[in-house]
Amino acid sequence: MFTEIDQKKALLDAKRPLPKYTLKSLEEKLLLDWTYNSNAIEGNTLTMQETKVVLEGITVGGKTMREHLEVINHRDAISFVEEIVRKEDPLSQWQIKNLHRLVLKGIDDQYAGVYRDQQVLIAGATHTPPAHYLIQEEMDRLMQWYVTGAISLHPVARGAMLHAIFVGIHPFIDGNGRTSRLLLNLELMKEGYPPVIIRVENRLAYYEALDKAIAQNDFTDFITLVSQEVERSLNLYLSVLD
């Protein structure tokens, strides 16, 4: 499954260091695409162009304060991901809580960066997240898997499974989807991959593959979906550099 991805990743690595302004333009494009799509999946109604102007510090009329904050917060959370990558810090629950705190900052400060204290259901999903009193235990188990079982996996499979298992636990009251996609890209970026974009137009396939991974413990479809998006991002970088 990963042969073509590995070949394209090797081609990209061979071209490093990337030209300064080419890299800057790619990063700006992916920041916008990532922020727009991740928020749109969760119901944010800002268009791509409206998201762009909010990132530039301009308020869009007719849109809620929450929608504006979701854009700014997501940008700040991406900056935190980039900082973790630069420092080569190992993944921890402290980082996960801080990512989530940035996602919900000013939106729901009571629960920003705090594991949930009540039961929740996920609309449209066939699985039910664990009870709130099991969250710490489940997150401890996730981190134990991450440092033992996950270490031998291909980075794409590891990132996809980290995303899916995290969503299955659903440790926070709100903002789990955005946080999970940040974690996916954190894992990929640590290994030198460009960020991947789960596109809003692919939302149904994304939800179906994610639900299958969690409810049936079958990650095949979800890893395949993530792999396709990894290849798309690699193709973007290679096409610009060629």
Automatic annotation (TrEMBL):
Q: Which residues bind ATP?
A: 174-181, 206-207
InterPro entries linked: Fido, Fido-like_dom_sf, Fido_containing
Q: Which organism is it from?
A: Viridibacillus arvi
Locate the active site. 170
Q: One MF term from GO for this chain?
A: ATP binding
Q: What's the protein called, per UniProt?
A: Cell filamentation protein Fic
Q: Where is this site: Important for autoinhibition of adenylyltransferase activity?
A: 42
Q: Does the keyword Iron apply?
A: no
The segment(s) forming the Fido domain are: 91-228
Alphabetically sorted, this entry's keywords are: ATP-binding, Nucleotide-binding
